[in-house]
Amino acid sequence: MIRVNTKNIERLKASKNAVILAHNYQRPEVQDIADFVGDSLELSQKATKTDADILVFCGVDFMAETASILNPNKKVLIPDLGAICPMAQQLETEDLLVAKRKYPNAETVLYINTLAEDKAHADCICTSANAAQIVNSMDSDLILFGPDNNLAHYVRQRTNKEIISIPEYGLCPTHHQITVADLMEAREKHPDAKLVVHPECIPEIQEAADHIASTSGMVKHCKSSAGKEFLIGTEVGMLHRLEKEIPGKKFYPLSEYSVCPHMKMHTLEKVERALETEEPEITVRKGVADKARKAIERMLELSR
Ligand code: SF4
User: Whose CA is nearest to atom 6 of ligand 1?
Assistant: First the structure.
């Protein structure tokens, strides 16, 4: 096993005026070395506020792209280029354009889990923390929404607008594989635990939940809830942040197999190497970035 001297990471960060941003699903040791840990919305807001010259983004491709779009003058590094989001890959740009032509009066709201090329065709971006709020603040009553069909289900329960899913069956493999059987087994083991789940879970799991929230919403909810034990229905990396920030309560994974292999690709060794070599860098073509930025900034404006 390669041992990483975290002091060297700190030294490189200071000498290069770099910060490390890590998603809640990162490995515990990567979360612990990060300057900021959060969900997609928190990380994109943070990315607009830092005066660092280099952002080391420990998340998947679309997150690093978003950071680059919001910070065209900063260098955005991703420790492992293989960290892609399979859900973002499920949206074909051509399918989106066909739907936009078919429904000319619809507005397009895309989940932040999309590639920049697709964001460039959206009227507004959303995250799981603000999806219903964003859809409800659109002018049109007809919304093209993608790519997550489970998140679309969550939004449909909270809006009177008509939602058309693009693609029809987009999903996050990590959340979609949590089953009702997992829920029954977990409830048997932890009968007093409250069920808190992410809206990327299947509708049956959402409907059984005591609370549905983005990962940042989970932290807020579990802090303020009177409950002492929680079953957490999302990627297992989230438990590290919950246990660290809320030490007096107990957290159990709804399914211990909810692991996103792409999120786990970043290691301390790769973070150190990225800081040393200032590679791999994520860049987005200017024309695409300018259009995508408008849709992301509209979301940030509506989420204030
Ligand atoms: S957890 Fe799901 S949505 Fe998040 S990066 Fe992994 S595959 Fe994509």
Answer: 260
CATH architecture, domain defined by 174-253: 3-Layer(aba) Sandwich (3.40)
Q: Which atom of ligand 1 is nearest to the CA of 87?
A: 8
Closest ligand 1 atom, CA of 175?
2
Global pTM? 0.94
> What gap in Å lies between CA 42 and CA 127, rounded to an integer?
10
Residue 112 is classified by DSSP as S
Q: Where are the beta strands (DSSP E) in the chain?
A: 18-23, 36-38, 54-58, 75-77, 107-111, 124-126, 142-146, 162-165, 194-197, 211-212, 229-233, 250-253
Write out the E strands in 10-141.
Answer: 18-23, 36-38, 54-58, 75-77, 107-111, 124-126
Which one of 1.10.1740.10, 3.30.450.150, 1.10.357.10, 3.40.50.10800 gives the CATH number of domain 6-84+263-283?
A: 3.40.50.10800
CATH 3.40.50.10800 fits 87-171+288-302, yes or no: yes
pLDDT (tens, 9 = 90+) of the chain, 304 residues, equals: 566 789 999 999 999 999 999 999 999 999 999 999 998 878 878 888 888 999 999 999 999 999 999 999 999 999 999 999 999 999 999 999 999 999 999 999 999 999 999 999 999 999 999 999 999 999 999 999 999 999 999 999 999 999 999 999 999 999 999 999 999 999 999 999 999 999 999 999 999 999 999 999 999 999 999 999 999 999 999 999 999 999 999 999 999 999 999 999 999 999 999 999 999 999 999 999 999 999 999 999 998 7
Is the CB–ligand 1 distance for residue 148 below 6 Å?
no
Nearest CA to ligand 1 atom 1: 260
Every domain of the chain with CATH number 3.40.50.10800 lies at: 6-84+263-283, 87-171+288-302, 174-253
